[in-house]
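forwarding from the other thread:

> can someone predict this with NAP?

sure thing
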Amino acid sequence: MRYVDVGGARMSAIGLGCWQFGSMEWGYGKEYLEKDAIEIVHRALDLGVTLIDTAEIYGFGKSERAVGRALEGRREQAFIATKVFPVLPIAPIVEQRGRGSARRLEVDTIDLYQIHQPNALVPLSSQMEGMRRLQQSGLVRHVGVSNFSLDRWRSAEAVHGSPVISNQVQYSLASRGPDRSGLVQHAADNDRVIIAYSPLAQGFLAAKYDATNAPGGVRGFNSLFLPENLERGHELITALREVAKAHDATPAQIALTWVIRRKNVVAIPGASSVAQLEKNAAAADIELTDDEDSRLTTASDNFNPISGPAAVPKLLRRRLPF
Ligand SMILES: NC(=O)c1ccc[n+]([C@@H]2O[C@H](COP(=O)([O-])OP(=O)(O)OC[C@H]3O[C@@H](n4cnc5c(N)ncnc54)[C@H](OP(=O)(O)O)[C@@H]3O)[C@@H](O)[C@H]2O)c1
C-alpha cells in the first residue's frame, strides 16, 4: 500500500467506500451487510487500507454501524472518515450529528469529518463553527468537505480559520471535472487532498458492463450505463484493457492506478466482494509509465458521454416498463 500525508493526516492511497453497506439502492442484500461488509473491512485493514469512508446517510446509519462492528478491536488501524448530511447544518446540529456518528461507529474520535454537500441556505460560518466545536472537544481530528467547488472550499477554510484538509468529489477517467475546475491542482499545491469518489465510475471503468448487461439499482440512474455511452466509451475501455494487459492487471485496477497517480489524490472504491477489495488494494502497487498515463488521459479527454438534461429522457425510457 502507498500512503498520502496531507495537513497532518496520513491515509492510504486506496481507501474503501462504504456507501454499499446497508444501502438499498445498491441492492446487495442482507447477507452482504451482515457478513461480506465485515469481511471486506477486515481484509482491507489486513492489506494496509486505512481510509474507510462512510456517511450518516448511507443506509440511514447502517453503514456507520457496520463499520463500527467491523472495527471492533482494530480501531487504531483505520483512518475513519464520515460525513454530516447537511439538513439545516447550523452549529448545534452539526455538533449533535457528529456525536451521533461517533456513537454508531463506536469510536471516541472521528479522524475526518466531512460536510457531505454544500448547503447554500445556512452560512458556512455556522456550519464550520459546528465543526470547530467538534474539533475542540476532541471528537473530530480533521475537517473536510465534499462536492464543494474550489471557491467554496477556500471559503470554508477561511471561515474555519484552520485547515479543511480534504474535498471528496467525483473523479475518475470518466469524470474529469476536478481537473478542469482546478481542484486537483489546488490540492497538490496546498497540502490538501482530493478524495476521489466513484473512481471506477460505479463499475463503468471495470469494462464488464455492456448494453445487454447494464447494472440496475442506483446505477439505473447513472447515464454512463446508457447504451449510447457504453458505445462512446469504446476508446477509453480499449485503452484500459490494453494497459491492463501489459501489467497483468484488470481494467478496474488501472482506472484506480490512474486516479492515485495524481499528486495528493486518493481513491475510495466501493466493493461488492472481498475479491474486488483485494484487487483494488493491489492497484496501489501498479506503476504506470508516462506513456500509459498519457494514453489513458487522451482516451479520457476524447470520451464525450451524453449527460445532464440530454440524458434524462433516455434514462426515463430505460426505466419505464413501456
Ligand atoms: N461524497 C459523495 O457525495 C459520494 C458520492 C458517491 C460515492 N461516495 C463514496 O465513494 C465510494 C465509491 O463510489 P461508488 O460506490 O459510487 O463507485 P465506485 O467505487 O466507482 O464503484 C463501486 C462498484 O464498482 C464495482 N467494483 C468495485 N471494485 C471492482 C473491481 N475490482 N472490479 C470490478 N468491479 C468492481 C462494484 O460493483 P459491482 O460488482 O456490483 O459491479 C462496486 O460496488 C462510495 O462507497 C462512497 O463511500 C461519495
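The first helix runs from residue 29 to 46. thats all i got for now
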